[in-house]
Amino acid sequence: MQSSSVRYPIALFLGGIAIGVAEFLPVGLLPDIARSLGISIPDAGHLLSSYAIGVVVGAPVLVALGSRMPPKRVLIAFMLLFALFNGLFALASSYPVLVAVRFLAGLPHGAFFALGAIVASRLAPRGQQAAAVAIMFAGLTAANVVFVPVGTYVGHVLSWRLPFAMVSVLALVTAWAIHAQIPAIRALPESGIAATLRHVTAPSFWPFVGISAIGTGGLYAWISYIAPLATEVTGFARSDVGLIMILAGLGMAAGNWLGGWLADRYPALHVVRATLMAMMVSVSLVAAVSQYRAATLALTFVTGAVAFSIIAPLQMLMLEAVPGSKSMASALMQSTSNVGNALGAYLGGLGIALGYGFASPEYIGAALVSIGLLSAFLIRGDREIAACTDPT
Asked: 337-373 b/e with 16+ CB inside 10 Å = b?
């Protein structure tokens, strides 16, 4: 792949960074937020769940509302909303308001990625659409490798609110960059909402939901409580959490590349099944060796890589499952995966709240992944061939 020849606006990459920071920043700051508000860590974890629910609701709804409008204008609107709500999150003082604003901040998240993926593929030269889309999603991994650790450090040293104000500023910069870099393109005609609903409510589509909405919950049950696990069980200092998040981000970056590489060479459904098996083992091992520093660090990288390697092959399967509506397929991918985010964060926190310890979210995550794996085996084999023949 010669990425230098891909005509790709950096604006979408910046959007990926802003969204990635906003999504994963609370993970490392969860103890700080809880202490600042005088609440428990499981209660603070509800901020993660509320954001995820916002993504679930916002992705299909906002994509549908903007389907007949010029994509450039819609992307700018999404980023302006993202800037507004993250700015309000940095200023809000009460816990109920923070939960509500966090939900609102999640609304444009999935919609931006869904529409951004379509725009990136349309702007790229023929045969390089996947490369352009991958660069946008690389913003998520860049966020985890660089910006989330920096924001975590700033939040520890100064205030957890300051990094969210920075996210708001970055979202405004992204909106300006979209205005400056992305050309005016017409909306792509797609199947209507009624036709799309017929596809997504059919029983044959339910296993896809099982993978994306439940199976991916293993990732979020693990990463949502990685900070208290590292500090309370493994014995790392709070100042080490930023470095641990860098390690997780490097694993995610490697997994993002690995998943795309595997999906280009093997049936996507086979890759999804193998990845879910590896994820189930990985998150279980995280809990089993959580008292050992070296093993915890190694598995932080490995689990991040395994978890993010499912993105590309699962996206291929989802696109094939909703024919005639690629933007809605992308939106459903974002929406259902964030059901997994909400489930993982909520159920993981529930395990802690019930007294099963800070390692309990990993076992809960393994159970969620096992449901996703069962769902993957319920998908008919002919899906593999269809998914592999559709490069977008």
From this structure: bbbbbbbbbbbbbebbeeeeebbbbbbbbbbbbbbbb
Task: Report angle CA 284, 28, 80 to the nearest 5 degrees.
Answer: 120
How far apart CA 177 and CA 62 sit, in angstroms, is: 21
Which tokens belong to 211? 């993978």
Which phi and psi angles does 195 have, rounded to 5°? Answer: -65, -40
Q: Is the pLDDT of residue 304 over 80?
A: yes
pLDDT digits 0-9 by tens, 6-22: 455 688 889 999 998 99
Decide: 16 and 324 in contact? Cβ < 8 Å. Answer: no
Q: Using CA atoms, how far apart are residues 286 and 290, in angstroms rounded to an integer?
A: 6
Could you tell me the CA-to-CA distances from 354 to 229, 360, 361, 368 in Å, in that order?
Answer: 16, 10, 11, 18
What is the structure's pLDDT at 325?
A: 67
Show Cβ contacts of residue 201 under 8 Å, excluding neighbours closer than 6 positions.
Answer: none
Q: How many angstroms separate the CA atoms of 386 and 318, rounded?
A: 11
Question: Cβ neighbours of residue 355 under 8 Å, at least 6 residues apart?
Answer: none
Q: Are 221 and 347 in contact (CB under 8 A)?
A: yes
The sign of the torsion formed by the CA atoms of 302, 307, 308, 310 equals positive
Work out the number of other CB atoms within 10 angstroms of the CB of residue 198. Answer: 12
Q: What are phi and psi of 360, to 5 degrees?
A: -65, -30
Tokens found for residue 196? 């799309």
DSSP symbol at 240: G
Q: Are 24 and 144 in contact (CB under 8 A)?
A: yes
